């Protein structure tokens, strides 16, 4: 955040301090203006104005701050710096780069009152013009490109609030983000750096119905509950059910161009893992480091609560900026419950009338505003871009009836319910196949049928039916035991077991199994279906179920996931299963 | 120093006083009663002209004539390496009859957050010598792993066993100069429990490398809100300035949260779930997140908070919020305890989130991850079948199912039940694991790499021999 060239409005005096909420008198401010609080200049935002009293949420720890200290107004709302240098960077909740903070504070701990611009103002970037002198440009148009990282070409856009006009000067060369790269006949100068208020969506054209999947490389998600590019999904689950691993898998393997990963009120060590891993992991599409397409926002649970409230907005604004360039962006927010709790905490310090479970009455509105910033868009410059949002939800006690989960479910179209029981038996990802759903299934089927297999939807439906049947049979088994079931039902249970163990389960920590392309997802399913069909033929021919399930080839089904050369392995396996079963009759 | 005689209201642990000069948030306060007694407190809310003070030692005996003195600074912990071996009160004053503390440094007890960028990811295995933890829910340096327990369960014994036995493999090799220190923060525990801990510390000589903070059940509840911060400030100092590997045991977090609720109620705040304040998540996070490692520093802070779940209910706000912050949890189980399993750790709901990176070849053993996964799955299956046995009896089950039932029994008696005084190294733990897994048919071991099965799987016969040998 740089506030260098803003005019300072009337300053005020602190009147009271209560945790992150500070009130000031004599402050001439507008709602959501950014202010600097106290002698140390702690960053804060105006959240209420009543008579002469202005209420401020402070983004830093307020110990030792007292009444009588000054409050300085910047006159600007909370904004993010946009431009080359946003990718491959790790920010806190108000877009201060954490590595710069460490250097400036000269400490491993986060000190107070230190500010840093969101993008490097000194660094020079190689600018290549895309328009010529004499061309007319409008808001949102691409005027040039910059190689931001090895993977991503950054497009320099005419700011959305610009009037546009005729280009009178443009040239290639090395520029810092604050130098003018384009001059218009109106006298307007375009720089690579833009600022945008985080609480306001960047303008875009129409939203379209998404028809392309955001491939996740996870079998249960791609296979059963796919999400579209431009779609929204929620991952609720009690603690220990694997929310964070699931989110990180998406950040690592999904086929988005850009990933914005928000660690909102989560664990410090977890963020460190991401910070250490991502630069080393290769992007499955390009082979370049994952960080080259990623921005991390790390506001851990012990960092100030007000910055936790703002970090999701910081993230989505960055996502919108890359969408405007025509990229497909995936945004992971882990966890939106912490964000909601931050709202609750601030609301209760403001002594607002609480809604359900102490959450503010505007909870549902804020959640839907956030998720609605996702979508598949026609951009104002004529390109298409998308933002897919995946929000983790941490319901207290794993109870999905609580307000954050319920309000989220009313908005999102894809629901991946994590299940503590599955996690306990180390069935990961612990996405419960009975409770989860995806409303994108039908609109994405044509894509899968065209790009993977004609009978994609059919085979999937077979798997769903088998798993459903297993669910019903399991209830009976709980009462009378498996051996009391008729043979065909016993066989169904066995087939369903392979569906669970070889298809739904996936080991995120295994080098090969961690990513599964859609072809492999499909082939594993057909292998199990081959077993199913052959086994039922055998059963009809009078072979006892024990003999069918005892053939040598079967345990190999569970090892498909870890095979690199899976096609040959599965061809052989299918043949062996068929041959061994046919030998029995 | 500003002194006032302007108390306007006394309510529960809070005192309200009028002031004519601005007072900082969190600033320390001394209150002197008419008979000269001095109480300490902290500013909770500061408005122009009026401050709310929470008094650590309780408000009884304070009247409107008491003097209020503002110290002009926030609460500081006196730090020195010589704290090792000392016993302090819940607010950091010596209570062992020893000399006063000569601090090298005084540090604010509200620790700043560690910059996630400066952290080092924890992946050094700590061997606790407890199979249920080492084998199934491995602890690593810099982790925060709470013990979820209930009233009347032996969580203290387990914590003591960990404090006594904890070692790091490289330490045994002598490759590491860093020393090990234990910080013990007691909040609202009974004098008897405190004695148990102190006796054990003295008996094993652990006290020399420990700093003990004691807030007992009859000490003021409000003091409990500063005790863990004192303890953690000391831990950070020893770890990141003096290169110690610090293990912090905080017991009992439930009492801490009760104290938070008490203060919240006295301030007439809008209560959250079950009356606990809405900011409890943030507050707990500010404690738990003070575990970790920092790049370029030798030391580490590892936390084992203990909490007793009211009614053994892990959806209660205290365990629930804790579970969302900490990197896993160890469940102490009432059924296992009544069966006499020591330590009664139920591994199924237990979890160590940092386990995957702290184990494996070069860290523990190549087969560790697979063995643990397979045992989880097998034990879970055995547990499920127990419900069924209650209905249809063992005879009605298949041979395979019976093997799983035996496995579950053996797992509890052979693997988990090792006694509070047995120290097993990781090799021993994993070997016992293989003994158990070898009672299952080889084809059932679908989570273990084939090469490892070849190397370690014993088959049915060899196991029976070993089982009788035990």
Automatic annotation (TrEMBL), chain A:
- The keyword Membrane is annotated on this UniProt entry: yes
Membrane topology, record value: Peripheral membrane protein
Q: What class of enzyme is it?
A: translocase
Record key words, sorted: ATP synthesis, ATP-binding, Cell membrane, Hydrogen ion transport, Ion transport, Membrane, Nucleotide-binding, Translocase, Transport
According to its UniProt record, the EC number is: 7.1.2.2
Q: Which InterPro entries match?
A: ATP-synt_VA_C (IPR055190), ATP-synth_a_Xtn (IPR031686), ATP_synth_asu-like_sf (IPR023366), ATP_synth_asu_arc (IPR005726), ATPase_a/bsu_AS (IPR020003), ATPase_F1/V1/A1_a/bsu_N (IPR004100), ATPase_F1/V1/A1_a/bsu_N_sf (IPR036121), ATPase_F1/V1/A1_a/bsu_nucl-bd (IPR000194)
Q: Which GO terms describe its biological process?
A: proton motive force-driven plasma membrane ATP synthesis
Domain ATPase F1/V1/A1 complex alpha/beta subunit N-terminal spans what residues? 16-75
- Description of how the protein assembles with itself and partners: Has multiple subunits with at least A(3), B(3), C, D, E, F, H, I and proteolipid K(x).
Give the UniProt family note.
Belongs to the ATPase alpha/beta chains family.
> What is the name of this protein?
A-type ATP synthase subunit A
Organism of origin is Haloplanus ruber
Lineage, top ranks: Archaea, Methanobacteriati, Methanobacteriota, Stenosarchaea group, Halobacteria
- Coding gene? atpA
Automatic annotation (TrEMBL), chain B:
Record's family?
Belongs to the ATPase alpha/beta chains family.
The way this protein sits in the membrane is described as: Peripheral membrane protein
ATPase F1/V1/A1 complex alpha/beta subunit nucleotide-binding domain ranges (all copies): 129-352
Check the record and name the InterPro entries matching this protein.
ATP-synt_VA_C, ATPase_a/bsu_AS, ATPase_A1-cplx_bsu, ATPase_F1/V1/A1_a/bsu_N, ATPase_F1/V1/A1_a/bsu_nucl-bd, P-loop_NTPase, V-ATPase_su_B/beta
Q: Which organism is it from?
A: Haloplanus ruber
Summarizing the function annotation, the protein's role is: Component of the A-type ATP synthase that produces ATP from ADP in the presence of a proton gradient across the membrane. The B chain is a regulatory subunit.
This protein's assembly is summarised as: Has multiple subunits with at least A(3), B(3), C, D, E, F, H, I and proteolipid K(x).
Q: Where is the ATPase F1/V1/A1 complex alpha/beta subunit N-terminal domain?
A: 7-72
State if GTP-binding is listed as a keyword: no
Any GO MF annotation of the entry: ATP binding
User: Which PROSITE patterns does this chain map to?
Assistant: ATPASE_ALPHA_BETA
Q: Which domain of life is it from?
A: Archaea
User: From which residue to which does any coiled coil extend?
Assistant: none
Which residues does the UniProt record annotate as the domain ATP synthase A/B type C-terminal?
Answer: 357-457
- Compartmental location: Cell membrane
Query: Mind listing the UniProt keywords for this protein, alphabetically?
Result: ATP synthesis, Cell membrane, Hydrogen ion transport, Ion transport, Membrane, Transport
Q: What is its main location?
A: membrane
The molecule here is called A-type ATP synthase subunit B
**What's one GO-annotated cellular component?**
plasma membrane
**What GO biological process terms does the UniProt entry carry, in alphabetical order?**
proton motive force-driven plasma membrane ATP synthesis
- Name the NCBIfam families on file: ATP_syn_B_arch, PRK04196.1
């Amino acid at each position: 955040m740089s506030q260098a060239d803003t005019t300072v409005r009337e300053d005020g005096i602190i009147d009271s301090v209560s945790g992150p909420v500070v009130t000031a008198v004599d402050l001439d401010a507008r709602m959501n203006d950014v202010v600097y609080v106290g002698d140390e200049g702690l960053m804060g935002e105006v959240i209420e104005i009543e008579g002469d009293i202005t209420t401020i949420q402070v983004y830093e720890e307020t110990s030792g701050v007292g009444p009588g200290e000054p409050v300085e107004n910047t006159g600007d709302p909370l904004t993010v710096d946009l431009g080359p240098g946003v990718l491959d960077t790790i920010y806190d909740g108000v877009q201060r780069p954490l590595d710069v903070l460490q250097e400036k504070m000269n400490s491993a701990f986060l000190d107070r009152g230190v500010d840093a611009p969101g993008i490097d103002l000194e660094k020079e970037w190689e600018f290549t013009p895309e328009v010529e002198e004499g061309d007319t440009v409008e808001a949102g148009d691409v005027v040039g490109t910059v190689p931001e990282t090895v993977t991503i070409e950054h497009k320099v856009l005419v700011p959305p609030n610009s009037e546009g006009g005729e280009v009178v000067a443009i040239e290639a060369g090395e520029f810092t983000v604050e130098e003018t790269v384009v001059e218009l006949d109106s006298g307007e100068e375009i720089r690579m750096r833009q600022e945008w208020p985080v609480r306001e969506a960047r303008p875009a054209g129409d939203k379209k119905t998404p028809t392309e999947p955001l491939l996740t490389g996870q079998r249960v998600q791609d296979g059963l509950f796919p999400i579209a590019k431009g779609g929204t999904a929620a991952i609720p689950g009690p603690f220990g059910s694997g929310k964070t691993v699931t989110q990180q898998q998406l950040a690592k393997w999904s086929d988005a161009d850009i990933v914005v990963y928000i660690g909102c009120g989560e664990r410090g060590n977890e963020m460190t893992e991401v910070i250490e891993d991502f630069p080393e992991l290769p992007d499955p599409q390009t082979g370049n480091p994952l960080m080259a397409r990623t921005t991390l926002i790390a506001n851990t649970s012990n960092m100030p609560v007000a910055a936790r409230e703002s970090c999701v907005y910081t993230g989505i604004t960055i996502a919108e900026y890359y969408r405007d360039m025509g990229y497909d962006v995936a945004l992971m927010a882990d966890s939106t419950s912490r964000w909601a709790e931050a709202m609750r905490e601030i609301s209760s310090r403001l002594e607002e009338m609480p809604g359900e479970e102490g959450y503010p009455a505007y909870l549902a509105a804020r959640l839907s505003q956030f998720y609605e910033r996702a979508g598949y868009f026609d951009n104002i410059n004529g390109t298409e871009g998308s933002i897919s949002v995946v929000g983790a939800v941490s319901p207290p006690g794993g109870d999905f009836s609580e307000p954050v989960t319920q309000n989220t479910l009313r908005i999102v179209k894809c629901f991946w319910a994590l299940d503590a029981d599955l996690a306990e038996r180390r069935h990961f990802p612990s996405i419960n196949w009975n409770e989860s759903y995806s409303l994108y299934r039908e609109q994405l089927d044509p894509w899968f049928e065209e790009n993977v297999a004609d009978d994609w939807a059919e085979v999937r439906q077979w798997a769903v039916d088998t798993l459903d049947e297993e669910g019903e049979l399991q209830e009976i088994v709980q009462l009378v035991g498996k051996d009391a079931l008729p043979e065909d039902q016993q066989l169904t249970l066995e087939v369903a077991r392979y569906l669970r163990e070889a298809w739904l389960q996936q080991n995120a920590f295994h080098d090969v199994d961690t990513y599964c392309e859609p072809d492999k997802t499909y082939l594993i399913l057909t292998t199990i279906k081959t077993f199913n069909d052959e086994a039922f033929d055998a059963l009809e021919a009078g072979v006892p179920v024990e003999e069918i399930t005892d053939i040598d080839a079967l345990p190999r089904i569970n090892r498909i996931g870890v095979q690199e050369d899976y096609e040959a392995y599965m061809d052989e396996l299918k043949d062996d299963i068929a041959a061994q079963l046919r030998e029995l009759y | 120093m500003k002194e006032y005689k302007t108390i306007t209201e006394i309510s529960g642990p809070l005192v309200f006083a009028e002031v004519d000069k601005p007072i900082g948030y969190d600033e320390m306060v001394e209150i002197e009663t008419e008979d000269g007694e001095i109480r300490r407190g902290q500013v909770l809310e500061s408005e122009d002209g009026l401050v709310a003070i929470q008094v650590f030692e309780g408000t009884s005996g304070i009247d409107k004539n008491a003097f209020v003195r503002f110290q002009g600074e926030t609460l500081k912990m006196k730090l020195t390496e010589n704290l090792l071996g000392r016993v302090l009160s819940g607010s950091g004053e010596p209570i062992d009859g020893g000399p006063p503390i000569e601090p090298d440094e005084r540090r604010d007890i509200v620790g700043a957050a560690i910059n996630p960028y400066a952290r080092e990811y924890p992946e050094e295995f700590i061997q606790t010598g407890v199979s249920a933890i080492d084998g199934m829910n491995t602890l690593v340096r810099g982790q925060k792993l709470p013990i979820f327990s209930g009233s009347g369960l032996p969580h203290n014994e387990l914590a003591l066993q960990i404090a006594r036995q904890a070692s790091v493999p490289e330490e045994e090799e002598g490759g590491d100069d860093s020393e090990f220190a234990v910080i013990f923060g007691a909040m609202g525990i009974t004098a008897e429990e405190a004695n148990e801990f102190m006796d054990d510390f003295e008996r094993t000589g652990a006290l020399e490398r420990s700093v003990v903070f004691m807030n007992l059940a009859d000490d003021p509840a409000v003091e409990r809100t500063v005790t863990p911060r004192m303890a953690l400030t000391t831990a950070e100092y020893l770890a990141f300035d003096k290169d110690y590997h610090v293990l912090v045991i905080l017991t009992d977090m439930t009492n801490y949260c009760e104290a938070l609720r008490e203060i919240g109620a006295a301030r007439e705040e809008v209560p959250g779930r079950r009356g606990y304040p809405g900011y409890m998540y943030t507050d707990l996070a500010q404690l738990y997140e003070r575990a970790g490692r920092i790049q370029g520093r030798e030391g580490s802070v590892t936390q084992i908070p203990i909490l007793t779940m009211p009614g053994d209910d892990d959806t209660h706000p205290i365990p629930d919020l804790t579970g969302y912050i900490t990197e896993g949890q160890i469940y102490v189980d009432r059924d296992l305890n009544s069966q006499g399993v020591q330590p009664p750790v139920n591994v199924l709901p237990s979890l160590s989130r940092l386990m995957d990176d702290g184990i494996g070849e070069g860290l523990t053993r190549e087969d560790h991850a697979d063995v643990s996964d397979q045992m989880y799955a097998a034990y879970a299956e055995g547990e499920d079948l127990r419900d069924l046995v209650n209905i249809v009896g063992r005879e009605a089950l298949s041979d395979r199912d019976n093997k799983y039932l035996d496995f579950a029994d053996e797992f509890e008696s052979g693997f988990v039940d090792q006694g509070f005084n047995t120290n097993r190294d990781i090799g021993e733990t994993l070997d016992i694991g293989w003994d158990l897994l070898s009672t299952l048919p080889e084809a059932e071991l679908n989570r273990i790499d084939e090469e490892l099965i070849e190397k370690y799987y014993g088959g049915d016969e060899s196991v029976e021999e070993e089982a009788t040998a035990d």
